[in-house]
Structure formats: structure tokens, C-alpha cells
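Hey, quick one: can you model this chain's 3D structure?
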Amino acid sequence: MKRELPLRDDAEIERLVRDFEALSLPRANWTHRAHLAVGVHYVRHWGLDGALQRLRERIQAYNLACGDPDGYSETITVTYLCSIAADIGGDDGTVTMAEQVARLASR
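Sure thing. Here's the predicted structure for all 107 residues.
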């Protein structure tokens, strides 16, 4: 059963990303919102191209660690990441990652 993390602020998103990258995020917490949060974090830190390369590698490593080596979809990852980049690209520096994730998740 999936379990959403609150992701109320950027510190919670940073923790999520650290756990995801350390392959210690419980599978139940790897939800749609968690995917969006990691995508937002990556795009903000590495731009679209860097984010895509990093996310591609990290999702595959995470899935493998969780026993799902075939769970990665390049098409879905590229589509979502491009959508995230387009959506947050117009935001100024005052918009938090948490606000961006909440906005994306509400659509």
C-alpha cells in the first residue's frame, strides 16, 4: 500500500531525495508525488538535461534495489521531467520546491 510523505517544506523534499538516492526510501513512499518531488529537485539543481541523466540512473538503481529491475520507463520519465521543467521554469526564486510539488500534484 502506498503511503504519501507530507512534503510540506523543502527540508522534507531534501530528506526524500537523500533517502531515494541512498536506496533507503521505503517502496510504499515512492508515490506519484515523490516522483514529482525528486523531479523538481533535480531540475532545479541540474537543469533538464542533467536532471534527466541523473533521474534515469537513480530510478533504475532504486528499482533494482527494490526488486523491480524492469519497472523503469524512459518515455514516462522523459515526459514527466519535460513537463516539470516547463511548469517550474517560469517561477521566480521565491517559489519553494514544496509549492511547486503541491502545484504539480494538484493537476
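One thing worth noting: DSSP finds four helices and no strands in the chain.
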